[in-house]
């Protein structure tokens, strides 16, 4: 981390980074021993001889995370990695689908997760920045499809949808040496959708009864999901169905939306809900860590018929939070102007790319998306989309677009 005065607005500087770390000069550099909020005290002498001081708060982001938080360095060309000794599952669906091979950057390389075709085993391979294979880790008792992968500093975490039981969803956290740290079942109702299985995440609604939070009573069929790591917490975003009741015909009244949960890396009982029911229907979602908080985006085909953007606390701010109290978050469905019209059935006239972190001080995010003209009616008529574009939008932590947004086409 380097701080400087390139415009020469003062004559001399004294820097105090705390812990006895001080320096002088027009610029100062330090390697953070921890990531997150860093306090810096600055004393400077003006050209008129007066002396002033102030404190600055700087957020620093760690060099590991998920596929939206970093990049593989040292290459400026396209490399093809052939996994010649494995037959792996390739996902071809746009929406409501797990990933084929999520990536997670680490210093000097990256992890990649995938599922083997014949065995359904989930494996993670580590590569260096020259794309040389370092090792292969077969995850223990982890048959399924990877939905998200993130590095954690002392290992990695994988969100996995079960196989052949596709109604099973769990988070597996691994140590650096390839041994299991812990796992948590998130969803496990199987094909039985009328009785809630206690072997899964249960967030009470706060009424004092046994009722669960809205949208988390009888969950099944997890679809798209992503995870990210920051400040000792793992953010897990996943879309799923929930049974809200029984129709007069005897069929289940089920709908699909997304849920976001924050797990402590070291305290398995510290699990906090961010929201229980967000985008509906959540076709595809993304989540990254920006050094201070998590940033989320999901494309909806109903509520909203647009991309829902959100930022939320990591959970490190509120250890021991009561499970019925949600973490603080803010959301907006107007970062992208107009509509990205859907049909309420899993189809949309748009596609959403990854959220990426463009800068940290100040925080700026970027997201690529496309949409094309479309009019849909499904019971209720929705405003048609008349815009045909491939675009890249930038926005800040307050979910406000600055003056610059680059439209690619």
SSE diagram, text form:
Blueprint: E1 2-4, E2 12-16, E3 22-24, E4 27-29, E5 36-45, E6 51-60, E7 103-106, E8 109-115, E9 121-128, E10 133-151, E11 155-162, E12 168-175, E13 180-188, E14 219-220, E15 225-230, E16 233-246, E17 252-264, E18 271-275, E19 280-289, E20 294-303, E21 307-312, E22 329-332, E23 350-360, E24 363-371, E25 377-378, E26 380-381, E27 389-395, E28 406-407
Structural overview:
The protein has 409 residues and is mainly beta. Among the domains are: 2-60, Immunoglobulin-like; 103-293 and 304-334, Neuraminidase, CATH 2.120.10. Helices cover 0% and strands 49% of the residues. It has strands spanning 2-4, 12-16, 22-24, 27-29, 36-45, 51-60, 103-106, 109-115, 121-128, 133-151, 155-162, 168-175, 180-188, 219-220, 225-230, 233-246, 252-264, 271-275, 280-289, 294-303, 307-312, 329-332, 350-360, 363-371, 377-378, 380-381, 389-395, 406-407. The chain has a seven-stranded antiparallel sheet, with no helix packed on it. Strands 14, 15, 16, 17 and 18 form a five-stranded antiparallel sheet that branches.
Helicity range: under 10%
Main β-sheet, in a few words?
7 strands, antiparallel
Rounded to the nearest angstrom, the distance between the terminal CA atoms is 36 Å
Q: In DSSP terms, counting alpha (H) and pi (I) runs of 4 or more, how many helices?
A: 0
By CATH, the topology of the domain at 103-293 and 304-334 is Neuraminidase
> What's the total count of β strands?
28
